[in-house]
């Protein structure tokens, strides 16, 4: 018999930002157990704080966890080499983690996830599929099709909220429309109810014997792209998987977080959390990161750092928020008039940028780092993105796709937000006319030139005074440093004054074209401002099989504000069913109502 899940939504907080204690999750109810449910893993490769996994564990006697590798469904946004390396390693650890709890991960290769799930349901007799919600339009279309196909088979679908602190449809303006600037979004976001993370399950219902599936190594996630040296480098520096994510989070909370507000702008040392690839593949949840940050003793004594870090986490939420409400922004500008920008589609300049051969060391060092390691610090991303768009006048979508293909933390919503922000496509991002001052950035980001020396060893012997501007060095100085400019390292591809005047001319042409277009449409379309907004709410069900958090009664803002006056807060986790009783490492430090830490 198909278990009935009550449709509904989380209740909105009241005007003080609090919500009734039982609003967060529906309490467990008596329900007839299904024989078999499918847990469809996607970008939630973890056991702790995984609502869909917790729901299947409660709704069925047996649970079949499945991951379907179906890159064709991602269209032009199939994962790049580094991201695939990460996924392959993460799936292997997930399979081992599930096996340790008596379950078994089924790995499938398919070109249509919905069809694969239907076949699986027919083969096994499963009557329910649970999965955690994704917010990018590619996934949402795929999920809608899968749900329709499963519904036609009579299989119940349970999409659950797991990836964000707050759901996009919970953060709206008074008139019910979505925000289109970060500050207003964040203010409203803070009024949402804070839900503490679900505990890690101690055991799981057993998986059915069939079907065979593939071993992680046979899934061929890498495809034809051999990772070679890059793979060796990645294996040395990263530990994909839930345990690796928990270690990275605990390490950052203890040592990196207290100095975050000052150190995060520095590119010559690891100054940020490096959690982004773990977050992308859902090896740790935003709720776990939030809980660990607010619970970190050291950080509570450094509220500036804590707020700065939580603000970064809110940017991640905002990226998903924009993708959900304004799905076109993944590759179209949020501000309509940017459509009329006369980009220079210069392939040679694009190649120079990708290869770190622009002649501007602060840009080239980061681009070479990206190519070799799949990583760039946030400031480096801003500098490289801004340079591509404002200085080289290349379309930001080219840069977005290159970052997508190469970043180890490639994440469509965050990538798109970053590029839109730098390219002048957002109301509250950098204005189109704003060019990043490379000398100023170099002084802030890489004051001693260590980053440039590491990634452009040719320049290593230049003194600090010229490390960021080798073209200003005298011939004698260049000779003493062993550099033949134009041979060993390029002259600047374009000089600054000409880049400035080209940008100004392009911006003027864009404004004129946008004004003409608006006039042609009878002035109906604004030359500036968001357009084609949508206020969509998915058909999200809240499953009655989810564990309840009886004490979830504070808004996100209340929890954050309590940090300023050193107050403590408490949550109560209902773990009476024994399925989930151990709190994960990520929640260490939170005061629980029963007095345990
Ligand atoms: C042009 C450009 C492209 C970007 N592409 C990506 C991308 O593909 N994937 C990605 O995860 N981030 C992207 N970012 C955002 C940001 O640079 C990275 O999230 C951050 O550098 C990751 O390092 P960290 O984990 O140490 O971050 P921390 O500073 O420690 O922040 C903690 C977490 O907050 C989130 N976060 C921080 N800053 C941002 C931001 N500006 N936007 C969205 N989320 C943020 C990330 O999940 C991050 O792991 C991009 C930024 C720019 C300017």
From TrEMBL:
Keywords: Chromophore, FAD, Flavoprotein. Its cofactor is FAD. FAD binds at residues 272-276, 309, 409-411. Belongs to the DNA photolyase class-1 family. Residues 1-23, 508-540 are annotated as: Disordered. InterPro entries: Crypto/Photolyase_FAD-like_sf, Crypto/Photolyase_N_sf, Cryptochr/Photolyase_FAD-bd, Cryptochrome/DNA_photolyase_1, DNA_photolyase_1_CS_C, DNA_photolyase_N, Rossmann-like_a/b/a_fold. Residues 35-165 form the Photolyase/cryptochrome alpha/beta domain. One of its GO terms (biological process) is circadian regulation of gene expression. This is Photolyase/cryptochrome alpha/beta domain-containing protein. GO terms for molecular function: deoxyribodipyrimidine photo-lyase activity; DNA binding; FAD binding. The record marks 343, 396, 419 as: Electron transfer via tryptophanyl radical. Binds 1 FAD per subunit. Pfam families: DNA_photolyase (PF00875), FAD_binding_7 (PF03441). It comes from the Eukaryota. One of its GO terms (cellular component) is cytoplasm.
């Amino acid at each position: 018999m198909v278990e009935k899940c009550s449709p509904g939504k989380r209740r909105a907080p009241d005007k003080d930002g609090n919500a009734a204690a039982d609003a967060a999750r529906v309490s467990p109810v008596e329900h007839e157990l299904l024989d078999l449910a499918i847990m469809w893993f996607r970008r939630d490769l973890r056991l702790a704080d995984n609502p869909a996994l917790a729901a299947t564990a409660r709704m069925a006697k047996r649970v079949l966890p499945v991951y379907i590798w179906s890159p064709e469904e991602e269209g032009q946004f199939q994962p790049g080499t580094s991201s695939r390396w990460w996924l392959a390693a993460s799936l292997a650890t997930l399979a081992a983690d599930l096996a340790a709890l008596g379950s078994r991960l089924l790995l499938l290769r398919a070109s249509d996830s919905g069809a694969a799930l239907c076949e699986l349901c027919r083969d096994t007799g499963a009557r329910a599929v649970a999965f955690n919600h994704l917010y990018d339009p590619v996934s949402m279309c795929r999920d809608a099709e899968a749900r329709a196909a499963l519904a036609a088979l009579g299989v119940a679908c349970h999409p659950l909220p797991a990836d964000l602190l707050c759901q996009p449809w919970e953060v709206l303006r008074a008139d019910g429309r979505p925000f289109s600037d970060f500050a207003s979004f964040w203010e409203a976001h803070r009024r949402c109810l804070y839900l503490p993370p679900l505990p890690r399950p101690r055991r799981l219902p057993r998986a059915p014997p069939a079907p065979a599936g593939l071993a992680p190594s046979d899934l061929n996630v890498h495809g034809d792209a051999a990772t070679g040296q890059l793979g060796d480098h990645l294996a040395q520096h990263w530990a994909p998987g839930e345990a690796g994510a928990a270690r990275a989070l605990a390490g950052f909370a203890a040592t990196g977080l207290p100095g975050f507000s000052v150190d995060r702008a520095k590119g010559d040392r690891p100054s940020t959390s490096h959690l982004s690839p773990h977050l992308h593949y859902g090896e740790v949840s935003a709720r776990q990161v939030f809980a660990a940050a607010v619970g970190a003793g050291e950080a509570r004594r450094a509220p500036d750092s804590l707020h700065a870090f939580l603000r970064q986490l809110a940017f991640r939420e905002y990226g998903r928020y924009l993708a959900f409400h304004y799905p076109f922004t993944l590759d179209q500008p949020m501000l309509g008039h940017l459509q009329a920008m006369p980009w220079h589609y210069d392939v040679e300049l694009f190649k120079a940028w990708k290869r770190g051969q622009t002649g501007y060391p602060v840009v080239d060092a980061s681009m070479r780092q990206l190519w070799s390691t799949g990583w760039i610090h946030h400031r480096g991303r801003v500098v490289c993105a801004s340079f591509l768009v404002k200085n080289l006048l290349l379309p930001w979508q080219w840069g977005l796709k290159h970052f997508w293909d190469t970043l180890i933390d490639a994440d469509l919503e965050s990538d798109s937000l970053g590029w839109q922000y730098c390219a002048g496509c957002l109301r509250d991002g950098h204005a189109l006319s704003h060019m990043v001052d490379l000398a100023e950035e170099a002084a802030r980001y890489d004051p001693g030139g260590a980053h440039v020396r590491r990634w452009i060893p040719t320049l290593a012997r230049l003194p600090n005074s010229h490390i960021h501007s080798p073209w200003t060095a005298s011939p004698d100085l260049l000779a003493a440093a062993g550099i033949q400019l134009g041979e060993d390292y390029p002259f600047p591809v374009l000089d600054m004054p000409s880049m400035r005047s080209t940008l100004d001319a392009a911006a003027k042409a864009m404004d004129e074209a946008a004004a003409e277009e608006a006039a042609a449409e009878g002035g109906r379309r604004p030359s500036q401002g968001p357009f084609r907004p949508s206020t969509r709410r998915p058909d999200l069900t809240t499953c009655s099989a989810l564990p309840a958090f009886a004490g979830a009664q504070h808004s996100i803002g209340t929890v954050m504000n309590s940090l300023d006056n050193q107050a403590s807060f408490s949550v109560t986790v209902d773990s009476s069913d024994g399925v989930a009783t151990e709190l994960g490492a990520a929640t260490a430090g939170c005061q629980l109502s029963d007095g345990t830490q």
